[in-house]
Amino acid sequence: MSPMAEIYEVSFYGDQIEVTVTKNAAVVNDWINSHRCRLHKLLVGLDIEWLPCFNPEENHPVALLQLCVGRRCLLFQLLHKDAVPRFLVDFLMDPNFKFVGMGVKGDTEKLLRDHKLLVANTVDLNQLALSVYGEEVYGKMGLKRMAKEVLGKVMEKPLNVTLSKWDAEELVYEQIEYAAIDAFVSFEIGKNLFNSIWERQREIEIRRRTVVKRENLNCHYQLQFSSSVSVLTLLFQLIKLDLRGSPSLKAEVKMKKLNAERMSDKGLRLKTSSTTTPESQLAASTSVDVNSHFISTIKPYTIKNPTLYLPLDFVKSNGLMDKSEMILVNEKQRSWSMWLG
After folding, report:
1. Do 20 and 77 lie in a common domain?
2. What positions does the domain 3'-5' exonuclease occupy (predicted)?
3. What domain range is 126 assigned to?
4. 336-340/250-255 β-pairing
5. 249 and 293 Cβ atoms separated by less than 8 Å
6. Does this model's pTM top 0.85?
7. Separation between Cα atoms, residue 167 and residue 58, nearest integer Å
8. What is the CA radius of gyration of the chain?
9. What is the 8-class DSSP label of residue 147?
10. 239 and 277 both lie in a single domain
């Protein structure tokens, strides 16, 4: 055993927990450093102990801070520390780490009042279990009952240890075992509950990707213009995509409801390959060869909030995501459709 720390092994249902008990800041720094670099986001079981109060006027400070990661626990005797560990301060304040515990909000508030140690990211096990199981009873459980419900394991919490002298300079084994198991069980419950949440999210994401993949086989993207746009402007949107070199594609122009407003008295017409589309046909359907780059004359109608449909792969390859509001829609046809009106 190091003169600055004592190492114990505590058993709990087959798990062998390595417990480091110390008053030394350097030992705490080393312990934290060895775990902090293991994972970017870490789950930490947290608990505290203090000398029990037997009348309302008593307010004993936190005597012991328990931290647990996996099967390794740190018991830091705050009342007998030689210094405040710098790494501990940074560790507790790091939002990347989730500190889980039963009534952890109250514990961390007391830790802040008594020792100026701020814990940035806490997760209360009651609220976490309530979000997973949806039953109000989980919001009121103590650690012992939750260990039984979530882990299927029974915790022994003898009253003589619960009410023991936690401010003693030398802790007895029963205290060390009790404190370590509290932190370990908090960690295990937190891990179990978060795994349930992550697994549920993973299943939802798999289902979502399956649906999107299936929809993408028969879908276009819908470009919704938020203001009135002339027919001529919409057709130029297709030409600006520069489809030269692509297979000959058709842009289908349809007027669902011809609610257009004439912007000019000029006699303009829409010209396709070798024919001229009369103005009267605009209310029906017109195909335009977008490779020909020949939009000629058309009476410039203005259409309110027109919608342009384009294939998904084309939208992605041409970087159109940022150019207008995109809405995924189901379309069976493979044509390039431009719906006006």
Report:
1. yes
2. 19-198
3. 5-209
4. parallel
5. no
6. no
7. 14
8. 34
9. I
10. yes
Place of tokens 């070798």: 274
Asked if 225 and 302 sit in the same domain, the reply is: yes
**Both 122 and 231 in a single domain?**
no
DSSP of 7-40? EEEEEETTEEEEEEEE--HHHHHHHHHHHHTT-S
Q: How many CA atoms lie within 13 A of 17 on its CB side?
A: 28
111: exposed, middle or buried (Cβ count in 10 Å: 0-12, 13-18, 19+):
buried
pLDDT tens for 145-161 read 999 999 999 999 999 99
The rounded distance, in Å, linking the Cα atoms of 38 and 32 is 10
Q: Which residues contact 328 (CB under 8 A, 6 or more apart)?
A: 212, 215, 219, 221, 222, 312
Pairwise CA distance, residues 224 & 338, whole Å:
10
CATH number at residue 26: 3.30.420.10
| 203 C-beta neighbours (distance < 10 Å), count | 10
Q: What is the pLDDT of residues 159-204, one digit of tens each?
A: 999 999 999 999 999 999 999 999 999 999 999 999 999 888 888 7
Measure the CA–CA gap between 192 and 199, rounded to whole angstroms.
11
Number of CB atoms found within 10 A of residue 248's CB: 9
